[in-house]
Structure formats: structure tokens, C-alpha cells
Design a protein that fits this description.
heterodimer; A: mainly alpha; ABC transporter involved in vitamin B12 uptake, BtuC; two-stranded antiparallel sheet; B: alpha/beta; Rossmann fold; 2 domains; five-stranded parallel sheet; 16 strands; about 40% helix; about 20% strand; globular
Chain lengths: ~300, ~375
């Protein structure tokens, strides 16, 4: 057995899966509270990635960085999460709020519209060209080139370590926030029954805004993680990543936060192992086959609970 | 009510049919018509002037315009260029082709740039009786006969590229019978076609070919690179997006693999693909390195300051071919699309800025055309074969 290939596929899968999981968390949070499939979420991830690229440019570009890499990374994550969060709040305020009591199809179509709007606006403002974080050539520390050794002569780059550790830290923070804080409890209550939560004195509007902010901030961070590990950013990058994250959320059980993380990791690993061991040509087909198989066996996802229909 | 709606639908369908028929008849009439040469002759130019391939398309446009500007300074019959932006998108190419086909002043077209685009516009130009010529579409099947007499190109096709690349890998890059080459396409038709041709050429020499495929939007190749073994000497990357090849080559080096990345025409962009030690095959020479072209290149840079790439110069030659055909067709003071079509296929340029003669075969390919191989050294492309 080629253990080098096996370990490399695990690293690639977990690293990709971490990014999908972060995006999937946003999908799940919004769906849990509003029962809305926010298809614009992938484009917030794209905006976050471009914010990170903008910070690199401000500090002289990848080959002429004028500040320490670690300081720049901190600023990139701060700005991308803040920018992504605020964009998410704006989208909720201007595109979804008026449709809260409309038939379910209306906000769904609006979400697609917002997605196209963000993609085309980004292309208009930022251009259609692919841009690169080029963390292979960062002046002070080429984090994509430097690596730690793993068993079987496999390696994991600093950038991949940052992605995996960073994603875990954010997920732990999110879990603690949802479990331990008052706002987190309000989010869980709203997710359980929005009307009952309102009757119990919970400010549902505030909870929804907070949900969009946190979910979108995670997507913004995912955009930067993707940039530092996989370099490329372009206006349409959100569609594909958003699609995989959506699959991850559904596979894990949409509305369920641990499910989103599990789904993300599963999709990431399925992708990398299908490329490594089966066929690079059919890796997408394999990922979607997993989705279909999970849906047939467990229609509510791996960790989702079947909805009880009251009649 | 239902009956009334039915009548309305029938009337609307009839109206649409009438409009389409009228437009179609108009196009056919325009194709057959002759025009006076005294007010000048127009040619269309389809190129990806904006979008992801905007830098390539602008360069193509500039070289064609540059030739026409030079020509108009010294010739009585002036040539006008009508520009159409395709963004390397076959659907946009079709729409703009329709506009050129409907314009009775247009006597020939330079472009489109991509093979998929050529396939999309071919039925439109054929119906309109227009000659159209690409300086970068290299798919073999484009000159297999369906559009014979209408489509031509001044660059070699992928059928020449496959054996050229395979021979170079075999003779210079340590590939031997029994060693391995990974061939990765980007799931687009240009890429898969070329990957198949190169793969077949290598397999014919006894090389083990690991045929792989990635999405054009993929950014992580580590799963695939893990499969690159010690016996793999070359990874062939016929991608359409240069930055994707850059990413692959960077990740290849980051994983400590010694295999050499080898790109193709789609990756030819030194600002996007510049990993030292990599190779690229390309359908045209770098005219900036040909001593005989120094004066032309200098004049070009005067008119269009900034960098140029080998994507541009073939369009200069296409404009030259049209100018030659237009001169011949305009001898009686009038010109038609049929005349241009007939004359442009007979053009024989003994010497061009591409470093050799241009004469077309009956199919519309260049007789004796060859591919060029470049090595990336210090971020620059150096001609090695």
C-alpha cells in the first residue's frame, strides 16, 4: 500500500473539508432559523477572499510584503470576517427581511438573485481575471512552501496547518457561543420555534441579524483560508465552493451545526480519496453519489432529526 | 377564451417566422452581393478583448490593427476593422458573428480565437459566405472538411503539437520507454483533445501515461500530485488558464516532486505561469526574439506600448493575408465575399514575421507549420526548440 498517497489524501481532504465546513456552518445556521437556503452565502465567501487579497495588495503585494506575515494574517482575518459579516447583515436587511412571511420560493429566488448580483458586481469592480495570494512567494515567510513532515514521507504545509487549526478554533468558538451565551441560547430557541421565541420575549430580529453576521463572518474567514492554502481568487469562485458546502450541510443534516462540520469533512475526504484512488475525472460524480446515497438512507442527513409534521 | 389565445399564439409564431425568414434572406442576399472598393473594404475581428483572456485578445486585436494601420498609409484601397468582443465565450462569439454576417460591408473575418468559438460561428459564416481565419484555434477537427473553403488558420494544429511535445520530452527531458508521464486535462474540449493526442504520442513510444483530469476551477492539486511517483519525469498540463498551471507547478515543487511541468498554448502567459524549470509548447514563435522582426516589433511597440505575447503576431499575418486577397479582388473596382474567400486561400507569402513562409493547404491549414518549445528561466520564456 502507498502510505504516502494515503496520508497526503487525508491532509488534502481535511484541509478542504475544513473550508467547506466553515461555509456549511453559515448555510446551516441560516436554514436553522429562517428555513432559508441562502445561495448568496458562497459569494460572501468570495468577497471575504477578495478582502484578504486586498489586504495583501495594501501591504505591498505577495512578493514585496512590508509587514510581518503573522500581523498581516491577523488583519486579513479580522477584515474578511468583519466585511463578510456586515455584507451578510446587509443582504438580510435589504433582500430577505421583507420576504420573511412570503411563500418559501420567493426568498429562494431572491437568494439566487443576490448571488448573481454579488458575482457580477465583483466582476465589474474587481475584473474577471484570476488573482493569486501567492503564498508560495511571501517575502518573509512562504507559508505554502514551508512544511512539517508527516509519516510515510508525506508533508503538510504551514498554510494547510493554518487552515485546519484556524477552522477548528472558529468551530469551537461557535459551539461555545451557541451553547453558553444568552444570544446563543436565543438563537437555539428561535431555531426551535420562531413564534414561540418571540412570545417569550426574544428579539427575533436581533437574533436573525446576529445569525447572518456570524455565519457570514465564518464564510469570510473561509475565503481567506482558501486563499492562503490554494491561492486563487476570482469573482465566480463562490458558486462551486458554495455548492459543495451546501452539499456538506445537507449530508450532515441541514440546521445541525456538528452535522455541517461532519458533512464538510466527509465531502473534502470523499473528493481527495476519489481523486487519489478512483478517478480524477469522476470525483464530482462520486461526491454527488454520496449525497444521493445519504439522502436515500437518511433523508434528514447524518446528524439531522426528522421533522415532525403536526396535523 | 382558449380559442382566442390559440389564434394569438399562431399569429405570433407566424410573425416570428416572417421576421426570421426576412433576416435570413437579407443575409443570403448580402453574401452574394458585390461592393465598391473605393470607400474601403471592411474586415471583422473577433477576439476576447475583455474577460479572463482579455490580455490575449487585446494583443491579437492590436497586431491586426497595427498591420492595417501600416497598410492604409501606403495603399489606395483602405481597410477598416470592425471589432467584436467574444470574451472567449462561444455564445458571445455566435452573437457577434451574426452581427458581422449581417453587415454587407464585411468581406472577411479574423477570429475567433478559441476552437470552441470557431465551431460555434462556423455555420453562421458559412451561410453568409464569409471567410474566417483564426490565429490561435488549433483543434485538428476544425479543418477536417466541414468548413473547407471558408475557415483557415495560420498556426499549426494540435496534431502537430502532440508529436512535437512527445519528441521533445523523449529527447530532452529524460522520458524513456518504461518511464511515466502524467497528462492532466482541465475538462474543456481544447484541453482533453490535446491531452489525448499527446498521451497517444507518448504511449506509442512505450511511455506509461497516467491520464488525469481536473476541473478548470480546481485550486488544490495535492491529491493528484501525491500520485506523481519517482518514475514520472514530466507532468503535461494542457490547461486553458495559465494561473492554474502555475498553481499545479508550485504545488508540485512544494511536495518535493522532481517531475517537470510542461504547459501548452493556453498557459502561455509569463505574468501568470512562471515557475522556473517548466516548459511550454506554443504554436507561434516569439517575434520579439527574431532579429529580422526587430523593426516591425519596434514600430508595433510605438503604436501599442507595453508587453506583447506570441498570441498576437499570427493576427498580423492574417491581416496581411486578407490585405493581399482584397488587393487581388479589387482589381476590377468591386469586391465580394466569394472573391475574398477564393483569393485568401491562394495567398502565398514567401516570408512573414512568424519566421517562415505562409501557404495554405487545401484544407485551410498552414503547409509545413511547426510548434515551438520554450523553457521558463528566471520567470522569462526562452526558446529552446
Amino acid at each position: 500500500m502507498n502510505w504516502n498517497l494515503f496520508v497526503t489524501e487525508i491532509v488534502a481532504g481535511v484541509s478542504h473539508g475544513s473550508v467547506y465546513a466553515l461555509i456549511a456552518l453559515g448555510y446551516s445556521m441560516v436554514y436553522g432559523i429562517l428555513k432559508l437556503l441562502n445561495f448568496a452565502h458562497g459569494d460572501i465567501y468570495m468577497v471575504g477572499s477578495f478582502i484578504g487579497f486586498g489586504i495583501i495588495t495594501v501591504f505591498g503585494g505577495p512578493l514585496n510584503l512590508t509587514v510581518s506575515v503573522w500581523l498581516m494574517l491577523f488583519i486579513m482575518f479580522f477584515c474578511a470576517m468583519l466585511g463578510g459579516g456586515l455584507l451578510g447583515v446587509m443582504v438580510e436587511r435589504f433582500a430577505y427581511r421583507r420576504l420573511r412571511n412570503a411563500p418559501r420560493i420567493a426568498p429562494l429566488i431572491t437568494a439566487l438573485g443576490v448571488s448573481f448580483f454579488l458575482e457580477n458586481a465583483a466582476q465589474l469592480v474587481l475584473g474577471a481575471q484570476y488573482q493569486s495570494y501567492n503564498s508560495f512567494g511571501w517575502t518573509n515567510s512562504a507559508i505554502a512552501l514551508k512544511h512539517f513532515g508527516l509519516p510515510a514521507h508525506a508533508v503538510i504545509s504551514y498554510a494547510q496547518v493554518i487552515v485546519i487549526v484556524g477552522a477548528v478554533v472558529l468551530m469551537v468558538f461557535l459551539t461555545l457561543f451557541v451553547q453558553r451565551t444568552q444570544l446563543g441560547k436565543a438563537m437555539r430557541a428561535t431555531s426551535f420555534d420562531r413564534e414561540a421565541a418571540a412570545m417569550m420575549g426574544i428579539d427575533v430580529d436581533r437574533v436573525i441579524v446576529a445569525t447572518f453576521f456570524i455565519g457570514s463572518a465564518l464564510a469570510g474567514a473561509a475565503g481567506v483560508f482558501n486563499g492562503i492554502a490554494y491561492q486563487q481568487v476570482w469573482p465566480y469562485m463562490g458558486f462551486q465552493a458554495g455548492l459543495y458546502a451546501f452539499i456538506a450541510a445537507v449530508v450532515g443534516g441541514i440546521g445541525n451545526l456538528p452535522g455541517a462540520v461532519l458533512g464538510g469533512l466527509l465531502i473534502g475526504l470523499a473528493q481527495s480519496f476519489s481523486i487519489g484512488y478512483l478517478s480524477s475525472t469522476f470525483s464530482d460524480a462520486i461526491v454527488f453519489a454520496i449525497l444521493i446515497a445519504v439522502m436515500i438512507v437518511r433523508p434528514s442527513g447524518l446528524l439531522g432529526r426528522a421533522a415532525v409534521q403536526k396535523v | 377564451m382558449v380559442r382566442r389565445l390559440g389564434w394569438i399564439a399562431i399569429a405570433a409564431a407566424a410573425a416570428v417566422l416572417a421576421v426570421v425568414s426576412a433576416a435570413s434572406a437579407r443575409t443570403s442576399a448580402q453574401a452574394a452581393a458585390t461592393a465598391s472598393c473605393t470607400k474601403g473594404v471592411s474586415i471583422g475581428m473577433q477576439a476576447p478583448i475583455t474577460g479572463p483572456a482579455g490580455s490575449i485578445g487585446s494583443d491579437q486585436l492590436h497586431w491586426a490593427l497595427f498591420y492595417v494601420t501600416q497598410w492604409n498609409k501606403t495603399h489606395k484601397v483602405k481597410i477598416h476593422v470592425i471589432q467584436e468582443d467574444t470574451q472567449l465565450d462561444p455564445s458571445k462569439a455566435s452573437t457577434t458573428a451574426q452581427a458581422l454576417a449581417s453587415n454587407a460591408k464585411v468581406m472577411g473575418v479574423i477570429g475567433p480565437a478559441g476552437s470552441d468559438e470557431v465551431q460555434a460561428v462556423a455555420p453562421i459564416f458559412r451561410k453568409a459566405g464569409l471567410a474566417f481565419a483564426s490565429g490561435s484555434a488549433t483543434r485538428v477537427s476544425l479543418t477536417n472538411g466541414a468548413w473547407k473553403g471558408y475557415f483557415f488558420r495560420d498556426v499549426p494544429n494540435d496534431g502537430v503539437q502532440g508529436p512535437t511535445d512527445a519528441n521533445y520530452m523523449f529527447s530532452k527531458l529524460g522520458v524513456t520507454s518504461g518511464s511515466s508521464v502524467m497528462v492532466v486535462d482541465d475538462q474543456e474540449s481544447y484541453s482533453t483533445g490535446l491531452a489525448d493526442i499527446v498521451g497517444q504520442s507518448l504511449a506509442g513510444k512505450g511511455v506509461k501515461v497516467d491520464r488525469e483530469s481536473v476541473s478548470q476551477k480546481a485550486t488544490d492539486f495535492s491529491s493528484l500530485i501525491a500520485k506523481v511517483g519517482a518514475s514520472t519525469k514530466v507532468v503535461f498540463l494542457p490547461f486553458q488558464v495559465a494561473s492554474e498551471a502555475q498553481l499545479f507547478a508550485q504545488q508540485l515543487q512544494a511536495q518535493g516532486k522532481t517531475a517537470v511541468a510542461f504547459g501548452s498554448d493556453g498557459t502561455f502567459d509569463s505574468s501568470k505561469f512562471n515557475v522556473n524549470g517548466s516548459y511550454i509548447s506554443f504554436f507561434a514563435p516569439d517575434v520579439t526574439t527574431i532579429p529580422a522582426d526587430a523593426a516591425v516589433v519596434k514600430a508595433f511597440h510605438k503604436q501599442y506600448p507595453g508587453a506583447t505575447s506570441p498570441f498576437g503576431a499570427p493576427n498580423y499575418v492574417l491581416a496581411q493575408m486578407y490585405a493581399s486577397a482584397i488587393t487581388k479582388a479589387c482589381k476590377d473596382g468591386r469586391i465580394s465575399r466569394a472573391e475574398v474567400r477564393k483569393d485568401v486561400l491562394k495567398v502565398n507569402l514567401p516570408n512573414t514575421i512568424l519566421g517562415g513562409p505562409i501557404r495554405l493547404t487545401a484544407k485551410g491549414d498552414v503547409a509545413g507549420a511547426k510548434f515551438h518549445i520554450f523553457k521558463i528561466e528566471n520567470g522569462k520564456y526562452v526558446t529552446v526548440a
